[in-house]
Specification:
heterodimer; A: alpha+beta; two-stranded antiparallel sheet; 38% helix; B: alpha+beta; seven-stranded mixed sheet; five-stranded mixed sheet; 19 helices; 31 strands; 27% helix; globular
Amino acid sequence: MAFQLSINGETRSVDADDDTPLLWAIRDNLNLTGTKFGCGVAACGACTVLIDGVPTRSCVTTIDSVEGEVTTIEAVSGPVADAVQTAWRDLDVAQCGYCQSGQIIQAIGLLTETPKPTDDDIDAAMAGNVCRCATYMRIRAAIHAAAASLEA
Amino acid sequence: MNDIAPKTADLHLSRRGFLAGSAAAAGALVIGFDGSGALAKADAAQSDATLTVNPFVSISPDGIVTVVIKHFEMGQGTTTGLATLVAEELDADWEQVEAVYAPADDTKYANLLLGAQGTGGSTAIANSYEQYRKAGAAARALIVEAAAKSWRVDAAEISIEKGVLSAGTRSGTFDAFVPLALGLTPPEEPRLKDPSEFRLTGDPTLRRKDGRAKTDGSALFALDIRRENMVRAVIARPPKVGATLSSLDDGEAKAVRGVLAVIETPRGVAVVAESTWAAIKGRDALSIEWDETDAETRSTEAIIAEHKAALDAPGVAARNDGDADAALADAARTVEAEFVFPYLAHAPMEPLNCVIAYDGQSAQVWDGCQFPALAKPTIAAILGLEPEKVSIETVLAGGSFGRRATPTSDYHAEAAMVVKALSETELKGRPVQLVWTREDDLTGRYYRPLYVQRVTAGIDAEGAPLAYRHKLAGQSILIGTFFEEMLVKDGIDSTSVEGANDLPYAIPNMRVDVRNMRSEAPVLWWRAVGHTHTAYSTELMLDMMAEAAGADPVDYRMKLLGDHPRHAGVLKLAAEKAGWGEPVGPGRGRGVALHKSFNSYVALVAEVTATEGVVKIDRVVCAVDCGRVINPDIVVAQMEGGIGYGIGAAMRNEITLTDGEVDQRNFPDYEPLRITDMPKIEVHIVASDEAPTGVGEPGTPPAAPALANAIFAATGQRIFELPMTKAGVSFA
């Protein structure tokens, strides 16, 4: 059936079964490929998108349950997103880069809620996002750098 | 549906701010090496045929320098490193340099250390260092010669800095001289810079070329390829290796909306659908019975028991100095340990996948292709094509750690089998994206082989080592593959014993021998290959020998490294930087490990805190000697990542089998290293003028033994069986 999805500032119609994960609607129906498939069971965070500003695992969110505005990596914007993406580039966080859309979305969610996170805050917020390249030290440093730039 | 990946080779890897315009414009000056290795030049405007001189470097009419990267990028930084080598010799501005990936062509883009096009063994920079510098230097010579003619000055009067040529009061950028340079012949042996002239090489502030695309969602991986009318395929594979299809009921699967076809392939039952989700749902709805008559049905316990028993039988000697058995009998003291290493999955973040479009005459492949030299003929053979009718567009790979390079090109073959089957149906001509799920990835074999090893060492009354006896039993990665003839000598697969048979420590009597265990299930190189287990057994044994001798672990090693100054150099540096010898405080411990792999030397000192049996990894200090460093920040990143990969697996990862079936299905069963586990890692690079060597893998081998030795220092527990959780260690 057809679902109306508010995504990245537009309303898009998606023709899919109601049990279709939002992830696959985004990737296959809307061809927004920045949101990644990693595990399908909400264990890695590669599929994270914002729904009304809250980081959400799109691989276990069925399309019929989506209420609110979906924002994917392609459309993140504003001072927090800018600060996070800039810090990620300045510190060259990414290696293979496959998980980083999800990491960045998760970090934007963290800094929106907690503008000056401690290491423990970062660990708690980011523990669900796997990076097999183990870029975690730089993720932590980039979040601190983004927080500092937002405060300045 | 529009194709949204019309030009995947142009990854928009650099900012266009430096110069406006497109690198793809006709008339680009193209410089490279022809098949014989000689420098050649072609005018790209003439024809495509001229471009087959295989350019590494081109300069567009608007001055954009495009570097063709012959290796794939899985995160290791090769794109940036190879582009740096060209930009350095060309004296280009970093912002005017773009990178694209080479097509599959062994004759032009071979890895000079492997003899065919492919990435592995941490060889990308090592084999390309001279080649890419020469390519950049040749480009520089042409631009300078053109400027000299244009300005009527001697070429020697011209200097270039950040893409700007100058001579006296005159100055200009590359674009001004491209038209004139088209008619010039590049020098066969262009002058290379003396390292003292390097400006970009060694610059820690140089950013990666792929950093922007990997932070805004635009980076294209194979799973992101979209082609018009593309279908998705997933495959239901037999859960036990060697099982075959007995019966199939696909009625419910075909009733799933979006499922287009269910086809039997030699690898399993493929479900083809309009969307990935429909394919997955369709597969879930299949009813399959497998014939397990010839299947591998052993459980892990039985496999380990067979390996242990094999250690008592003679092995094939990979090193035999003096008489280790006799010397052991004379030793004042002996220490012995038996190690068990589990199967390990690579689990790259991007599950395996590729896209093949086949029109009956030729095939176009999109893949994060680690070994085009294998993938291309494999796909061609299945489709019944000449290899030159298969072209591969290499896109970014979401990690690999070895998994994307199999001797059988397993996932490429699967995709080709599906495409071949569809070509005889009404779905013919539709591009196919083969997708592995995480469950497919973890249960899909090609693991790091399971190993059992027994090491016995003897020391004299003063504690000096007399004898060292190392027995290994494990499945060879190469025996039984087409690599066997090339790389296995006298029953020794070097990837089985590397790191053990080249132990650097001065021990007069040493024997290393291996027993090649057999299984139908294929095994594979996993980031650092044999070193992943031999570094552990050797470096735990060195600690145990030091303990038996009543010596400090660093001092003990150092005394045995007389002939190995680079080993000694990193060990000394890591120990100094870690404050080795200073008190660590109650409940805490420090452990060291030293290992050479892929011609690079890495020493680690790990520090842990053990609180009521729960271990927290606080810090790892790393010293690395990888020869000349192209990009120091990428070296640091590879050490951080390599160490993380090693400790994550050592802490809690194993693949186990019950009656031949894999027990782990998704990340919750194969819990990856997370940010909460990640210690602080400090990396110190040894300054060196030696040739550059690998960095993608060498950080991994010493990580687990350094951690184990630190846990021993904190708790008194030696861990001989991995993962550590199996030995009862808990981690905070």
